[in-house]
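User: Before I run my own analysis I want an independent prediction to cross-check against. Here's the chain; please return only the structure tokens and, at the end, one sentence I can use as a sanity check.
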Amino acid sequence: MKQLILTLFLLLAATFYSLQGFGQSLPVGTPILEDYYRRAQLLGKLDSSASFTSRPIFPSLPGKNGYTIIDAGFPKALTGTQLWGNTGETGVKAVIKLLPLTWKQQFNSDHPEGLNDGAMIPARGYQTMVSGGFFVQYGWFSVQLKPELLYAENRAFQGFPDEHTDAVWKIYQSIQNRIDLPERFGKKSYQKAYWGQSSVRLTYQSISLGLSNENLWWGPGMQNALLMTNSAPGFKHITLNTVKPIHTIIGSFEGQLIAGRLEASGYPNIDPQRLLLHKLTAVPKPDDWRYLNAIVLSYQPRWLPGIFLGATRSFIIYKKDLGKGITDYLPVIIPITKKQLGQDTEDSKPRDQLASVFMRWMAPESHMELYMEYGREDHNYDLTDLILEPGHLRAYVLGFRKLTPIRNRPDEFIDIQAEITQLGKNVPTSIRASGVSGWYRHGEVRDGYTHNGQYLGAGIGSGSNMQSMNISWVKNLKRLGVEFKRVAYNEYFWAIAFKDYRTHWVDLGGAAIGEWNYKNLLFNARIETVGSFNYQFLYDPVASDPPLWWDHGKIRYNVHAELGLSYYF
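Assistant: Structure tokens:
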């Protein structure tokens, strides 16, 4: 079957070899360049119809005055170095390109930290990832081969503490039984090879159909997004997506529809032999992969330049529970409320839904953008349910960005960014949902919304909240700045296991950030100090005399460092 599909691809490509296609992508998480192109749009160098809400981005993304995105600067970024090829009057006939070589490194001194780092695992110590490859195109048909090789020292660190009571451990275990999220990926160093940002595609004008292992990012957020980020490795999926906006008389559209395969990590969340109240409480997860069907759509109204409106939706289900009907393979097309589906019918199906709506307002004349994403973890029963309790199992992302020109310094700006992500428990959820419910966890799909033991969505994790601010000097590809963040972890768990407001686990971090280019080289670096208050929810107060209610707990400090190098041949 696979050989037949490949043969059909080749026959189609040979038939239409003179038609132009753009199958090559700029992978999600590409250091420096992804953000550079988004800034270029705010500065008016890219056409305002590109939403940046469905990534990866492609060379055919429109630039200013009809040029493509590569004309916005650093043209090798999206085209690679051509080793061989020829073009015709109507477009590319055949080409072979050498893709950039990227080397990423990361270090954590005390315990795992890191956000949106793809195949890298949550680990203490040193880890590194190398990626490079080739791009081949013949007419409509293209192959992008960009594997990733990972090594992590994976040193031991303090996990969930034994000092917690059995009652707390039981609640923790009940949550861990509903998600594949190992504390540590084995007890030795970790090595793995991935297909990485590889794909096989047929691309014609604005539409691309193919097989891919690439990371995806859906929504306007820059630090977090609700359904798709690069917090986990890329996963195998069939994709039908736009590579540039489709223009119509009512506005432009972008989107992606996928059918994918999510794998388990293969590691237990905690020791499966641990006894709680003289019983084994760890429940083995099914030895099965999960089917993922998901969609994102973005619309830019013709009458409202710079405004983007969109929605995402996803379903996961174990392969053994997957039916054979069209709505089993494409549940994203079914009605959005349980009343329309029949509540008992939908509730009887062992699958989990996530959905969100988003908005991005981009104003090039002011070099500014505002954005938001609002999501629900479960179906509404009906419209009345949505109106009365929109906050049930809700999550949201709010963000702002402004580039301010520096007087008498051409192409130099002060870049101010701020973002808030809320996944934590609120009042409607506390009353209506069970204690272990929450984003990315599920009672029947017990590996949750993860791939290889990491979140597909917001990397801060289920039930967590994050506030961040970044202030930087930028000039073209160069950036120097500082970033501050606050993360409150797993407020769902805290709310049912502790309820003592001195026991929240909160990280405060401050980072210095640098990005620089020299000839064909791009460098990026980050050094961050993080203070973890009540790490792993262990409130161990520093005694005072006389004793005070607000005696602060002990703080664990972690140094998180990143260093990256990309070479464009």
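Sanity check: The CA atoms of residues 172 and 493 lie 7 Å apart.
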